[in-house]
């Protein structure tokens, strides 16, 4: 039996290894476009915006029914004791039905419908604005994951170079060619790089969790991204003049539609100066104790109807209605100023977005040149160390310069990608 178990141990180990390999291979790899699509489908803010649209549509459906007649029913049971039962029936039930039809209300019904329609349009624009913000946050979070991954690669590459340098310096110290403090400096840099590697891995985990929350990914951080910070990083020329009105932004259209809603409300307040006409038709019946029908003393049932036409004419209210209209006009003026101010701010945002993107492109160019120079400096320092013309401290300094230059390249390229996403956002593109 023991021999049989030993024979099966290798196959069991192979099975476990195979399962781990399948789990690693099953990790989801996401592209930027896939993340954007997941955000559109699963993001909670977009779902909330859609629910607000549904609420506005329900309000519009209610407003569309305004002006139509309504039917109401009621039933009343009564009992009279002495001495009222001597002149009134002792008991009875009186059901009734009434129909009410507004005839004229100064145009308020149509204005309510128009206002409700604007409410739907505002919520639809609000969803567009929310979607734009979510997609921008998605791209920014995505490139933060890429950035963390690039820093991990850099720390691992730096670790290999520092290990090789430590080995060379340690050999030279053993041979009596260099000083011990050069070896210790190299070890300190190894420890610092190991800490940087740990920080980079932690940053990648947090960046993945942030991205997963935005795109609604239930798997958490169990995914990887397919992109790297490569590609073209071009300088772009602004397509819009500063004076052009940025009506392409959803928030501008929201303010415009809100202004239209305020103007509708002004008309509603002015409608309060006009008369209103209402027509109603009511039918009633009663049955109970004998005598409930006054036209027939012995009858225990009665049925009748009546109609009413009411006219309400506003005459005098000490100027309250006029003050409400004036208040609304002030509100409209404030809304117009706010719209004008926001348009000017968006024009500045667009110009600033172009400037930030082009600054990133210039930074990439300069940091790339610096990296080439730092790489050449590191190579020459290593050669001079081997020839004995410099000490280990000089090589470690060159290694630090190379690491900083590489970090600058990563920062510049990620910054460009994020600024590129921001430019799409301020231009109203998705």
UniProtKB/TrEMBL annotation:
Gene Ontology CC entries for this record: cell outer membrane; efflux pump complex
Ribonucleoprotein as UniProt keyword: no
Extent of the signal sequence: 1-26
Domain of life per record: Bacteria
Pfam families in the record: OEP
Entry's Gene Ontology molecular function annotations: efflux transmembrane transporter activity; porin activity
Subcellular localization(s) per the UniProt record: Cell outer membrane
Matches recorded under Gene3D superfamilies: Outer membrane efflux proteins (OEP) (1.20.1600.10)
Database matches in SUPFAM superfamilies: Outer membrane efflux proteins (OEP)
Keywords, in A-Z order: Cell outer membrane, Membrane, Signal, Transmembrane, Transmembrane beta strand, Transport
Family: Belongs to the outer membrane factor (OMF) (TC 1.B.17) family.
PANTHER family: OUTER MEMBRANE PROTEIN TOLC
The protein, known as: Outer membrane protein TolC
Protein's organism: Pseudarcicella hirudinis
């Amino acid at each position: 039996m023991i021999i049989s178990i030993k024979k099966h141990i290798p196959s069991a180990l192979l099975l476990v290894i195979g399962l781990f390999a399948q789990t690693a291979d099953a990790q989801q790899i996401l592209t930027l476009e896939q993340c954007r699509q997941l955000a559109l489908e699963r993001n909670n803010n977009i779902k909330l915006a859609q629910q607000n649209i549904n609420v506005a549509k329900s309000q519009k459906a209610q407003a569309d029914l305004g002006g139509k007649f309504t039917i109401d029913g009621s039933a009343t049971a009564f009992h009279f004791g002495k001495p009222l039962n001597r002149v009134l029936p002792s008991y009875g039930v009186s059901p009734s039905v009434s129909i009410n039809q507004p005839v004229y209300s100064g145009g308020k019904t149509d204005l309510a419908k128009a206002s409700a329609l604007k409410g739907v349009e505002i919520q639809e624009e609000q969803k567009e604005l929310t979607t734009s913000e979510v997609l921008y946050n998605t791209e920014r979070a995505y490139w933060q994951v890429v950035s963390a991954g690039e820093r991990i690669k850099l720390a691992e590459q730096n670790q290999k170079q520092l290990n090789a340098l430590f080995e060379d310096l340690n050999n030279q110290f053993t041979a009596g060619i260099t000083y011990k403090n050069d070896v210790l400096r190299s070890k300190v840099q190894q420890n610092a790089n190991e800490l940087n590697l740990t920080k980079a891995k932690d940053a990648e985990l947090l960046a993945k969790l942030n991205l997963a929350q935005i795109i609604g990914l239930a798997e958490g951080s169990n995914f990887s991204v397919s992109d790297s910070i490569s590609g073209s990083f071009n300088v772009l020329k602004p397509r819009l003049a500063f004076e052009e009105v940025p009506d392409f932004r959803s928030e501008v259209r929201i303010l415009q539609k809100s202004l239209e809603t305020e103007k509708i409300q002004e008309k509603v307040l002015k409608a309060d100066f006009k008369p209103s006409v209402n027509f109603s038709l009511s039918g009633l019946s009663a049955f109970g104790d004998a005598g409930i029908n006054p036209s027939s003393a012995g009858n225990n049932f009665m049925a009748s109807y009546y109609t009413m036409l009411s006219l309400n004419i506003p005459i005098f209210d000490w100027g309250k209605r006029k003050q409400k209209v004036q208040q609304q006009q002030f509100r409209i003026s404030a809304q117009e100023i706010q719209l004008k101010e926001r348009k000017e701010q968006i024009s500045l945002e667009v110009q600033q977005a172009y400037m930030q993107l082009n600054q990133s492109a210039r930074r990439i160019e300069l940091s790339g040149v610096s990296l080439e120079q730092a790489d050449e400096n590191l190579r020459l320092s290593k050669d001079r160390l081997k020839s004995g013309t410099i000490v280990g401290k000089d090589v470690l300094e060159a290694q630090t310069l190379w690491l900083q230059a590489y970090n600058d390249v990563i920062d510049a390229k990620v910054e460009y990608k994020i600024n590129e996403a921001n430019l799409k956002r301020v231009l109203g593109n998705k």
